[in-house]
Write a structure and sequence with these properties.
Blueprint: H1 2-10, H2 14-17, H3 21-54, H4 60-64, H5 72-76, H6 85-96, H7 113-138, H8 162-177, H9 185-194, H10 208-230
Length: 231
């Protein structure tokens, strides 16, 4: 279903994006199911003394699954796997490794209280908004989603977000490889709307050769759209 939905939405196959789809999905599952929780536990073991000093009511389980407002415990219970020998061993290693070079990323810093509050609020707001959308969808026969940036909450447009600019350019690349043969009318409309104002800021403009290629592909897309409309 994911493969069919991806092709219908973006006009390209999942296999065109991931060199080894099964390996990519397996790696994602491993990261979410094991790697990220494991490294979170390592962070707890490494900085637990500072966390207790900062917040005397600190508890490991609360830090690992601080989603009570999203009813995590109601859905999944209160049983959490405790850190084992491997976690404590990694924590000990990270304590003594100089936090330079590739290990600079493990220099964990305690967030300020207002930062933590803002983060928890963002999680709660996201869950509330998602639930509201599900309730709305349940009572509707058709689905119309606003093309907004999930990171900023703003409408997606050229220059609004660097990653969006780069992603649209990559999407044009992939679609051009197949001469836009699988590009739906809605997808054409979306891409053309994104590049409607060519004077708007866009991260791709920082690389003239890349921008020129994007403009050429955009003209190819426009020509394809005209050909389809006259067919």
């Amino acid at each position: 279903m994911l493969q069919r939905a991806f092709l219908k939405t973006y006009g390209i196959r999942l296999e065109d994006v991931f060199a080894d789809l099964d390996l990519s999905i397996g790696s994602f599952r491993w990261a979410v199911g094991r790697a990220i929780p494991q490294m979170t536990k390592v962070a707890v073991e490494t900085k637990k003394d500072e966390m207790v000093k900062e917040n005397p009511s600190f508890a490991k389980n609360k830090f690992l699954y601080n989603l009570s407002r999203s009813e995590y415990e109601k859905e999944w219970g209160k049983q959490y796997q405790r850190p084992g020998f491997g976690t404590r061993f990694l924590a000990a290693i990270f304590r003594i490794i100089p936090k330079v070079g590739p290990f600079k990323a493990v220099a964990f810093k305690m967030p300020y209280p207002d930062t933590e509050t803002a983060y928890l609020k963002s999680v709660n707001d996201t869950v509330d908004r998602y639930r509201a959308c599900l309730r709305t969808l349940k009572n509707k026969d058709d689905l119309a989603l606003v093309n907004s940036d999930f990171d900023t909450g703003k409408l997606t447009r050229s220059g609004e977000y660097t990653l969006a600019d780069e992603t649209y350019a990559r999407l044009l690349d992939k679609l051009a490889d197949s001469n836009f043969s699988n590009t739906s009318a809605d997808l054409r409309k979306n891409i053309l709307a994104f590049y409607q104002d060519l004077n708007a800021p866009n991260a791709t403009k920082k690389k003239p050769d890349r921008w020129n290629k994007t403009m050429a592909q955009l003209e190819q897309l426009k020509a394809t759209q005209v050909a389809v409309s006259h067919y």
